[in-house]
Every structure is written in C-alpha cells, then in structure tokens.
Design a protein that fits this description.
mainly beta; 6-stranded antiparallel barrel; 4-stranded antiparallel β-sheet; 3 helices; about 5% helix; extended
Length: about 220
C-alpha cells in the first residue's frame, strides 16, 4: 500500500495532553489525493502510483497536462471528454510514490488521511523559505571577525578564502555568501499527534519546511 499523501502547510499550533504537557505541532491539510496514473514494470520499468492534489483552473494548464488528466476536448472518432480524477476541478500537483503493489490501485481512486494513525512516524518534504542573498554568518553560522583592536567593519565578514601562495586559488565548494533557502528539505521521523479524517487534517510533532500554503509530501518514515 502507498503510505503517502500530498498536502499543504497551514501553520503551527500546540496541543495539550491530559497531564497538561504541551506539544508543538504543525497542521497539514493532507489530501484528498486522486490516482492519476498507475505505473508497472511492464509499461514503465518500475512500480509506482502517480497521485494528484489541489485544484486549479483548467485554463492554467498546458496542453500536455490537459491530455494527461483526460481533459482534452473530444473530436471526430475520439472518446467523450472524461476527467481522470474525481476532483471537482483539474489537479494542480502531480507526484509519484514507489510501491510494490501498484496493480491494487485504479485511476481516479481517492487516497485520504485514513491510512495514517496517531503514533505513526512520517517524513515530510517541502521547499524551505527563500532568504535571498545572505552572508556567511546567516547562511552558515560563521562567528565573524574579532571585535577588538579598533576593528569595526569586519564583524560579519567571511575572512580568508584561500592562501596567497601554494594552491593559489579558492577551493571548489568553499562556503561563501550566496543564495540562501528555497531548497528541497526533508524533516524525518515526525510523529503524528492527531488525525482528523473528516477535515483531512494531520497534526505532526515539530516543524516542517516551507512557508504557510507550501506544498508538502508526506511519506512513511524511512528510518522509523
């Protein structure tokens, strides 16, 4: 079974237990997702299930996306127009989940949070917040220069980046100022604290990457 979903980060909150202990949680709008394609070894060389999530206006889709979702207008000697999924509108995000039993799924089948239970551990993947161009103190946690001997303009400087002789160049991969954030990141082994099947909500312990409204991929924990 594919133990995974696509979702949206709604924000952080906290949950109190019966003893009064507080647990910081992230609320995720998880699913419902719809199967848009079933891949098998015979047709694609591997077993996987492609699912879609989120609604979007059809005019925002490319011709290829419309064809993949079964939204192209029918013409002469063509079957009637039929949507692949059971969603009210076309699906915005498409992602794959590897599985060993892809044949158990059908195109259009809905996948919800019912597959998860309180106490399960998941890996949540998303894009971190973009921080723009940042220096080494913010980007890598450098300590900066000394704040003595009259130095006042080098507190957040990188410092030496290479030898004046010998190698005579800056080594590849040297940590220097540059673009910070907006990268794919996975928070591993997060515990599910609460599951709301009616509202398709998951509450996971701790923080997950990305800003509010960002797309998240929730999978069964690989290291649990």
């Amino acid at each position: 079974m594919v133990k995974g979903l696509l979702g949206t980060k709604l924000g952080m909150s906290q949950i109190f237990d019966d003893s009064g202990n507080v647990t910081p949680v992230t609320i995720i709008q998880a699913g419902p997702c719809f199967v848009t394609q079933v891949k098998t070894k015979e047709t694609d060389g591997y077993e996987a299930v492609q699912v879609g999530y989120g609604e979007v206006k059809e005019k925002r889709l490319t011709q290829g996306q419309r064809g993949h979702l079964g939204l192209l207008k029918s013409g002469k000697n063509r079957p009637d127009r039929k949507k692949v999924s059971g969603a009210a509108r076309p699906l915005r995000y498409l992602r794959e989940f590897r599985t060993k039993n892809a044949r158990e799924y059908e195109v259009g089948q809905a996948i919800t949070v019912e597959q998860f239970q309180v106490g399960d551990h998941v890996d949540v993947t998303g894009k971190t917040k973009g921080r723009g161009f940042a220096g080494t103190v913010k980007r890598y946690g450098f300590a900066g220069g000394v704040k003595t001997h009259g130095q006042s303009d080098r507190w957040r400087a990188t410092g030496s980046i290479g030898a004046a002789s010998g190698t005579g160049h800056v080594f590849k991969g040297k940590r220097m100022p540059g673009h910070y954030g907006d990268e794919r990141y996975t928070a591993q082994n997060l515990e599910i604290v609460r599951v709301d099947v009616e509202k398709n909500l998951l509450a996971v312990k701790g923080a997950v990457p990305g800003a509010k409204g960002g797309l998240l991929i929730i999978r069964e924990a690989a290291k649990s």
